Each structure stands twice: as C-alpha cells, then as structure tokens.
Amino acid sequence: MKSILTFILATFLLFPLQAQEKVYTVDNLPKVHLQNKMQYVCNPAGILSQAACDSIDSMLYALEQQTGIETVVAVVPSIGEEDCFNFCHQLLKVSSINSIYPLVSDSRTL
Questions:
Q1: pLDDT tens digit sequence for 8-63
Q2: Contact at 8 Å (CB) between 86 and 109?
C-alpha cells in the first residue's frame, strides 16, 4: 500500500515537470562545437551523464582526426512538432559541421 501511494505521489509531482519540458529549436540549441572544438555532444538538458558525454567526445574527436568529418550529437528532451529530418537539415545550414545525430527523448526517431 505504501509503495502504491509513493507511486501516485511521484506521478503527480513529476507530471507538471513533463508539461514544462523545454522545446529546443535551431535558434536556442547551444552550438557547443563552435564554442569548443573538443566538444561534440550538445546535452543542454543533462540527459546523458558527463562520463557518457566525455566518452562520445573522445570517439568523435578520433573520428574527426582520422577522417576529417565533424560530427555532433544533439541530445534534447523535445524539438516540439518539428520533424527530426528538417531539424537536422536546419542545424547543418547554420553550422560548419558535416553531420548531426539528434537524440530526442520525446520522439520515436533517431
């Protein structure tokens, strides 16, 4: 019984947080790689751990050194109603990188 009450309370407490989830756009998404050439993961909402970001940064740095291809991973909770393909296309147009991999937690598309 106590665990059921805890679950219900947690559900009601977390529901407003989900409703206020920030929607990221091309304009408000931090351009981390343009600010720091050693950073390839844009994780503004902190979805990934710092250790995961560091590991991905390392792998993508090695990829760039070996192939010359700059790749950025954008991890965000939401891009609203925007289509993932269009979102990536717009990001590529405003940046100097070669490829972007979006991970959007409220979307079924990677």
A1: 444 444 444 444 578 999 999 998 888 899 999 999 999 999 999 999 999 999 99
A2: no
What is the rounded distance in angstroms from the CA atom of residue 26 to the CA atom of residue 50? 23
- SS3 of 42, please? strand
Asked if 17 contacts 27 with a C-beta cutoff of 8 angstroms, the reply is: no
CA distance 26 to 83: 12
Rounded CA separation 98/69 (Å):
6
What is the rounded distance in angstroms from the CA atom of residue 92 to the CA atom of residue 103? 15
Q: Is the dihedral of CA 24, 42, 73, 40 positive or negative?
A: positive
Torsion of CA 30, 40, 34, 106, to 10 degrees: -20
**Residue 43, token pair as written in the block:** 């994780």
